[in-house]
Amino acid sequence: MLEGNQAAVFAERQKGTLPGELGIEWEVVANGRASGRFTVARRHMAPNGFMHAASVVALVDSACGYACVASLPDGASGFTTIEIKTNYLGTAKEGEVVRCEARLVHGGRMTQVWDAEAINETTGKTIALFRCTQMVLWPR
C-alpha cells in the first residue's frame, strides 16, 4: 500500500500513454480514492460531435486503476481488471471540464471493487457512473 497522495507520481508515469495523451490531470491518487479531470477538446470527441464514451472510460478507469495500485495489499505485485460497467447519463462539450471521483468499495486480498462518477464540472451534471472489479496479482 502506498502512503500519501501519489498524484504527481502517476502523472509522470502516464506520459506517452492514453491517459497522458487525453490530458488527464490528477488531484489525488491515494489509498482508497482518486480524483482527476480533463478539459474536453477535439481529441475527446466522437465524429458525431458528442464526447466519445471511451474518453469518459479512460478517465474513470484510470482513476480506479491508479488508486488500485495505491491500495494494493503489502506483497501484491499488481492487478488486472476483470470487469467494468458504465452507465452514461450525459455528456460535455468542447471547453467544458469533466472530473472524476473514484472510491474503493471493497478491498480484499484477491479483489478490489471500485466505484467512480464522472461529472461535467461546468454544468454540475453527472455524465457517467462506473464500477470495476480488479483482481489482485501475487508473485509466483
Layout of strands and helices, then pairs:
Blueprint (H helix, E strand, L loop, with lengths): L6 H7 L4 H4 L3 E6 L2 E7 L13 H18 L7 E11 L8 E11 L3 E10 L4 E13 L3
Antiparallel strand pairs: 1-2, 2-4, 3-6, 4-5, 5-6
Characterization of this structure:
- It is a single chain.
- This protein is α+β, with helices and mostly antiparallel strands and 140 residues long.
- The protein has 3 helices and 6 strands; from the N terminus they run H-H-E-E-H-E-E-E-E.
- It has a 6-stranded antiparallel β-sheet.
- A hairpin with a 2-residue loop joins strand 1 (25-30) and strand 2 (33-39).
The strand line-up of the biggest sheet is 1-2-4-5-6-3
Low-pLDDT runs: none
Structural class: alpha+beta
User: How would you characterize the largest beta sheet?
Assistant: 6 strands, antiparallel
What is this structure, in a nutshell?
The protein has 140 residues and is α+β, with helices and mostly antiparallel strands.
Feature tags:
140 residues, alpha+beta, Thiol Ester Dehydrase, Chain A, 6-stranded antiparallel sheet, 3 helices
